[in-house]
Amino acid sequence: MHRGMLTGVPEPFPVPIGLRLNQAARAVERAFDEALAAAGGTLPVWLVLLNLKLRRPANQRELAEAVGVREATLSHHLNTLDARGLITRTRDAANRRIQVVTLTEAGEAAFLRLREAAIAFDTRLRAGLTDADLTTLSALLGRLAANVGNCGDAGPPWAGLAERSRAPGGPRPAGQAAGP
Amino acid sequence: MHRGMLTGVPEPFPVPIGLRLNQAARAVERAFDEALAAAGGTLPVWLVLLNLKLRRPANQRELAEAVGVREATLSHHLNTLDARGLITRTRDAANRRIQVVTLTEAGEAAFLRLREAAIAFDTRLRAGLTDADLTTLSALLGRLAANVGNCGDAGPPWAGLAERSRAPGGPRPAGQAAGP
DNA sequence: TATTGTTATACTCTATAACTATA
DNA sequence: TATAGTTATAGAGTATAACAATA
């Protein structure tokens, strides 16, 4: 009864695909959050570390964009990482406005732990799906995203945090990312 | 370069499907949030109204479960709805522990507005997708959800809010739902 | 004046724990 | 004691606005 049609409503109504999408995304998100938590991390922390390693963002603006948050929000997360001893911030000698973010040894270790968790998670997630399935799924997801405006393939594939359009406060992202 | 493989990493690595899923889900979520906001609502508000109309939850525990939040969280949202004059809560004469939640006239009107927005959104979202596409997509999404534990088809199709597994605070849902 | 980043503040959504009231 | 619900408190994540420092 929960498959295909909603009944008990004026006229048969197909289960909205957006809802299916969201249920799946939330289930996956929750599981990924748990996997990261088990490895001592959170999604924002993981995304920041990942982007620091993968890209070499010239400044925090780039990093924030890659992570998918505002600059102020990134500062917030960097403060957390700093407090946890995972990064250091030092002024660039050539342009002292720029803070050069560097992973500490503990930061590198945290990155490796989280990367392992992310890789294991992705493997688990792909179970039973062929490459063709994944390609199809990816294409369909791209279409949905395109249908609502965001081109669906914009930005780096590891951009994983929500960027609220409405005023303050907002939903939470979800995420999952590659292990380089 | 952002398609299929991540480069610049030790070994070619397929773009994690979980990440694709999440990007799409967030784009859709954001758009749906906007659509609801334009109709004067939010996702929690919509889900509460929808569940009140669609089901006839016997008590708030049922309603909370349908919406996908804890009872205390539901109270929170009901307070908002109450403050906005969309619902009333009255004690059940037979069992005075039970609060009977009723939509006011303004609540009914809000429901209709949000329903229209949700239906329009779903139509927009499905653009260019055949029924076969939707079936395929739904199945693949179900598989992903199943792979991470949550059976992917549990609960009412309109349960749209996140249920945090980790301590306090937490991610935000996303959502989209049917218009009955 | 423009760029870079931080701080201050606030908001949404969520949760747990403790409480009231009823059964 | 058990059930129904509310209130109090808290926390994560996000945002905007105002600010400082540098160019």
Protein architecture, described:
- Chain A is mainly α and 180 residues long.
- In chain A, 52% of the residues lie in helices and 8% in strands.
- In chain A, the strands form two sheets. The first copy, chain A, has a two-stranded antiparallel ribbon with strand order 1-2. Chain A has a two-stranded antiparallel sheet with strand order 3-4.
- In chain A, a hairpin with a 7-residue loop joins strand 3 and strand 4 (99-103).
- In chain A, helix 2 (43-54) packs across helix 3.
- Chain A starts with a strand and ends in a 33-residue tail after the last helix.
- Chains A and B meet through strand 2, helix 1, helix 5 and helix 6 of A and strand 2, helix 1, helix 5 and helix 6 of B.
- Chain B binds a DNA duplex (23 and 23 nucleotides) through helix 4.
Tell me how many strands of chain A there are: 4
| CATH topology title of one domain in chain A | Arc Repressor Mutant, subunit A
- Low-pLDDT segments, ≥5 res of chain A: 1-12, 151-180
Largest interface: A-B, 79 and 79 residues
Please give the CATH architecture of one domain in chain A.
Orthogonal Bundle
| Major sheet strand order of chain A | 1-2
Oligomer: homodimer
CATH class of one domain in chain A: Mainly Alpha
Q: Which class of secondary structure composition applies to the elements of chain A?
A: mainly alpha
Number of helical stretches of at least 4 residues of chain A: 6
Order of helices and strands of chain A: EEHHHHEEHH
* CATH homology superfamily name of one domain in chain A: Winged helix-like DNA-binding domain superfamily/Winged helix DNA-binding domain
Task: Tell me the radius of gyration of chain A.
Answer: 19 Å
Biggest β-sheet description of chain A: 2 strands, antiparallel
Helix content of chain A: 40-55%
